[in-house]
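Bit of a strange request maybe. I'm writing a small parser for structure token strings and I need a real example to test against, not something I typed by hand. Could someone generate the tokens for this chain?
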Amino acid sequence: MLRALALNCTLKPSPSESSGDLLAQQVLDALEPYGVEGEIVRVVDFDVKPGVDADMGDGDEWPGIREKVMAADILVFATPTWMGHMSSVAQRVLERLDAELSETDDEGRPILAGKVAVVAVVGNEDGAHAIIADAYQGLGDVGFSIPSQGGVYWNGEAMHTTDYKDLPETPEKVASTTQTLARHAAHVAKVLAEQPYPAP
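Reply from user aminoacidic:
Good idea to test on real output. This should exercise your parser:
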């Protein structure tokens, strides 16, 4: 059984409804038929300190989230679009993952190199393509593998207030893209589990 962890980088603390939660859950649901079980963590509910170390001390709650990242085979990086960019919470997650650049496994491979990452973006403004590109770069840089077509997004009509969670049904294009993302992510995760990257 593979495991997935969805980090919802919404700015809204629980119990507020979150479109990011909805899309992240849809990705987890799409992964389930491929033998992947998962959970969602809403990062803003935790005191994640700024910094680029694995533990910033002084009540930093990132280490607990980091443990879940390390236990997962697939990371679902979910963020809203704010002012055309990923949320500040999402940026902080990337900054904290930067600590893993210097970590290796027993055979000298980057500690995140056996894991897969996909990206989910929601918002009422343009920016999803740029956010996915930025996230891919950051996640790939710290060691995650990005599967083919590993991003899904929904952008509402410009200058309107309808949220993804308020739609009467999931748009077909979003649903089909989510299915493709899940199929490819599960495939790459299984390949990496069976055939890890070569040690240096």
